[in-house]
Amino acid sequence: MVKERKSVRIQITNLVRQMDALEKTEITVPGVFYRDEGNIYLQYEEQQVEGKIRSVLKVSETELLLLRNGAVNMRLHFFKDKSRSTASVESGAGKFLFESELVGYSEAFSQDAAQGEVAFQYDLLSAGTYVGSYEVTMRIEEDPNEFN
């Protein structure tokens, strides 16, 4: 099956709660949306203070996988039927392994267009100790300025 790739705009909202602090960031980035073997994929690149980060999000019936490579390397792998899994983050400060606990998850994608939304909330734990809570929302729309 040939994967039809669509140019999209992705609005990403992150809410991070650590101790008594709440930080909200919002960015909009260009990306690519495609379906393959029943899975949905988003690819995008963002510029952070640390440098460029290339990301791939895979959404399937059973799992959610977020891979980030570049200035920060991260692997978040959630299974929809299991609340806890492992996560790894690597940056200039070194590589850290965490437990991630999926707290909430929702998705809604159009069947005939490259648009939709995926949202997930998770907690990170280090050696069983709560590190923080993270909420990620990605709104996807076909980019009307791109020709496919």
TrEMBL record:
Q: Give one Pfam family, short name only.
A: DUF1934
Q: Which domain of life is it from?
A: Bacteria
What SUPFAM superfamilies is this protein classified in?
Lipocalins
What InterPro entries does the entry give?
Calycin, DUF1934
The cross-references to Gene3D superfamilies, in alphabetical order and at most eight, read: 2.40.128.20
Q: What protein name is recorded for this chain?
A: DUF1934 domain-containing protein
What organism is listed for this UniProt entry?
Answer: Listeria kieliensis
